[in-house]
Each structure stands twice: as structure tokens, then as C-alpha cells.
Amino acid sequence: MGPESALALTVDTFSREETVDFGVALAGRLREGDVVEMDGDLGAGKTALTEGIACGLAVRGAVSSPTFTLLIDHAAGPCGLPLHHFDAYRLQDADEFLHLGFDEIVGSGGVTVVEWAGRVRSALPSEAVRIVASRRDELGEDVRRLDVAFPQGREDDAAALARFVDTMARGREEGTPC
Ligand SMILES: Nc1ncnc2c1ncn2[C@@H]1O[C@H](COP(=O)(O)OP(=O)(O)O)[C@@H](O)[C@H]1O
Ligand SMILES: [Mg+2]
Fold this sequence. Notes:
The structure is a single chain. The chain is of the alpha/beta class and 178 residues long. It has one domain: Rossmann fold, CATH 3.40.50. Helices cover 31% and strands 21% of the residues. A seven-stranded mixed beta sheet has the order 1-7-6-2-5-4-3, covered by helices on one side. Strand 3 and strand 4 form a beta hairpin. Helix 1 packs antiparallel against helix 5. It is globular. It starts with 7 loop residues before the first strand and ends with a helix. 37% of the residues are buried. The structure holds adenosine-5'-diphosphate (ADP) and magnesium ion (MG). Magnesium ion (MG) binds next to helix 2.
């Protein structure tokens, strides 16, 4: 699936705040049972994006980098969806992930984010929102690229986010808040 797909979009963010804002907008398109897989090097912005998702879902508790904890659970706020925030960085393989109860936690409801999804790919559902974050040092120290792909049937969600990205880019160029 290339970026030309109606299910995929690419966004360059020029600050941490823009990545958080994009996460807030993404949260508006997420629903019960969704799994968001995130890949990308250390410092690419996966946790910042998760912070935006948590903010958009208005869940309880601050997002942090769960480097030593595999999972940070955020109870549902007024939106009614909890957030399960996994970081698979330290895991050896997908079996370990499954033994830790991934399926049960996803099945318990809400939205699940998995950082370092590539470490546990075979344990993840085929229907997931996939995001690859990368640095764009050639454009600037604070520039990140987010390649986002929605599963089949979610064209409306991808289109809505693409509109948000356009608005964000216009606001940046015109120097006005969007
Ligand atoms: N455009 C941007 N988007 C996200 N983070 C950015 C951006 N520009 C700079 N940063 C910085 O990069 C780091 C991203 O860290 P983090 O979100 O923890 O990455 P990861 O979880 O992928 O390791 C933070 O220190 C953040 O302030
Ligand atoms: Mg992280």
C-alpha cells in the first residue's frame, strides 16, 4: 500500500506540539477495539504521538515512555474509552507479548497503542492502524515524518485526517493557529 492509497497519509510535523496535535486529531477517528501500531527509531516521536492520542481520548493519567514497564493503562475519561499503552522495545519475541496477556487486554475494550510494534508483529491483529515515525534531519532537527495507514474500510478516517493535516500546514505557513 503506497501513499497514493485512500487509506494512507503522510504528514511532516515541524515540532513536538504538531505531533501531539496530530495525535489528538487521530484520536477523534479511533474507536472501540482499535489497535495503533507504531514503529520508528528512538526519538522519532512515538510517545509524543501517544500523548496526543491520550489527550484526544481524554483518558486519565499522564503518558510517559514505558521503557521499563511494558504497559501503562489509562482509565477511561468522559469519552468512555480507556487507553492501553504498550512499549515492546524490551521484548524478545511475540510469544512473550502474548503470554503477558496482549489479546485479553485488547479484548477488554478501548484503544491500544503499541510502540515498537515490529518487535511483536506476529502477535498483532491484521486490522490495525499502522504508523511509522521517522526523523527528517535534512529538513530540520524538529521535523518528523509520520506515515499512517488505516485498515480496509476506513477511507473516511484517512480523508478526515488528511484534511486536518492540510489545515495544520496552512496554519503553519500563514502563521495563524488552525
Ligand atoms: N516534530 C516532532 N515530533 C515529535 N517529537 C519531536 C519533534 N521534534 C522534536 N521532537 C523531540 O523528539 C523526541 C521524541 O521523543 P519520543 O516521542 O519519546 O520518541 P519515541 O517514543 O519514538 O522514542 C522528544 O524529545 C521531542 O521533544
Ligand atoms: Mg517511546
